[in-house]
Amino acid sequence: MHRRRAGHRSDLRTHLSKPRIGLALGAGSARGWAHIGAIRALEERGVKPDLICGTSIGALVGAVYASGELDQLESWVTGLAWTQVVRLMDITWKGGLIRGQRLFNLFRATFQDREISELAIPFGAIATELSSGREIWLREGKLLDVVRASIATPGLFTPVIRNGVILVDGGLVNPVPVSMCRALGADVVIAVDLSWGKLGAYRRRRVPNETPVEQREEPSWFERLRPGWLGAVHAAGQEPEIPSIFEVFNTALDIVEQRVARSRLSGEPADVLITPLLPDFGTMEYHRAKEAIAEGRVAVERMMPLIERVIL
Question: Whole-model pTM?
Fold first, then answer.
């Protein structure tokens, strides 16, 4: 009897010593491929989440990871060329610039579109109700339908109608879903915030990446368009030019996302905050996956002393 009780106490201590880890993957458009590098670096150090929550591009990467298909996603994104990104844009003027049907048909042909309830790792995504601004938690249904709602960036992707409600990108209300991880039972939350480096001093300089990546090739016409898409960076004392309408809209969304993210994180802080720095990344530069993945790894390296202290 005494041995049984002692064994029970030992099992309880073992159970209590292993915190339930939640991974919160934030919004950030093309910067989102950094999530792949961060996940890889965490796994290599023995850190595997017990649940995953994502917003926008974080919902896409998180969903694929929860499905056990991260290898396929990494292989696909690292092979993307800018011309392929353009071909996936099915342009429309109703509700947004991109319908998204062509892209998600490709996703459905590439990845298994499972029910969320069938996943081995609990998963949830964030969307925003357009009519009220309410934060919507998506925890059931087909995985890619949920992701499509979470990534519906206003003005870029057309909104999604789900259960009679019009939904848009969750980054408007909860860019880094730490709160959802806590609600789903996470004891420790590791969050990846992609909004760092979008504005201010970070944006005006390149951050050297410690991991070498191949030199990217871009069509010459894209080089001419690039300043208008990314936002011109001006030298000190140089008179700025009036930006393009796309640049104004995109930067305005960046401001909202960063402000909301920092506000939410101040009230609902993560235990470990990983911040990939990709200041010169444009919203649609999905073909630069290798650079983003490399920076995701480096961002985890910067936080390893805290991760080792808190989790390992």
Answer: 0.83
